[in-house]
Amino acid sequence: MSIFEYNGSALVAMVGKNCFAIASDRRLGVQLQTIATDFQRIFKIHDKLFLGLSGLGSDAQTLHQRLVFRHKLYQLREERDMKPETFASLVSAMLYEKRFGPYFCQPVIAGLGEDDKPFICTMDSIGAKELAKDFVVAGTASESLYGACESMFKPDMDHEELFETISQALVSSIDRDCLSGWGGHVYIVTPTEVTERILKGRMD
């Protein structure tokens, strides 16, 4: 088993019309044994920027703490929040710094940039960025997430339709993956508000 699959995870981010959604499962496991059913994989950096970390749970928590520290330094120095594109470059540089002993994480970054244009991207454990205009996925359930998102996604969805689409894609995908599951955690972000919702899934 790959070290990336040790704790299991499912992460997806999707864009709508001037909004985006980011969602993850809630299971923390040690291979096939479930340890926790309310594990946090999505972190708020600021009101319009969210970070999802799939992969090894302990590395995800460490990387999150270091990124929050770096973002706070940026806020102090620049007196403004970081743009999503800038934050993606920061994450990429931090991961590449550690390329000989990497964090076993696949980050998913989602945010609203200038003119409230949604930005999403993912990268591998050494910071090679992959940008997308529709959706990005990561984690052990990524194969079934690709299929579900590919068939359900359509451009310029409003925030309610986006929530419905990302939720259906996540729930149907984690049902097909024994290493992730136990419900879902969804954030819908518009220029004016952030909505957080918990999904109930199969509890087995």
From TrEMBL:
It is found in: Cytoplasm; Nucleus. InterPro entries: Ntn_hydrolases_N, Proteasome_beta_3, Proteasome_bsu_CS, Proteasome_sua/b, Proteasome_suB-type. GO terms for cellular component: cytosol; nucleus; proteasome core complex, beta-subunit complex. One of its GO terms (biological process) is proteasome-mediated ubiquitin-dependent protein catabolic process. Component of the proteasome, a multicatalytic proteinase complex which is characterized by its ability to cleave peptides with Arg, Phe, Tyr, Leu, and Glu adjacent to the leaving group at neutral or slightly basic pH. The proteasome has an ATP-dependent proteolytic activity. Belongs to the peptidase T1B family. The keyword Hydrolase applies. It holds the Pfam family Proteasome. GO terms for molecular function: hydrolase activity. Component of the proteasome complex. It comes from Helianthus annuus. Signal peptide: none annotated. This is Proteasome subunit beta. Its main location: cytoplasm. SUPFAM superfamilies: N-terminal nucleophile aminohydrolases (Ntn hydrolases) (SSF56235). Keywords: Cytoplasm, Hydrolase, Nucleus, Proteasome.
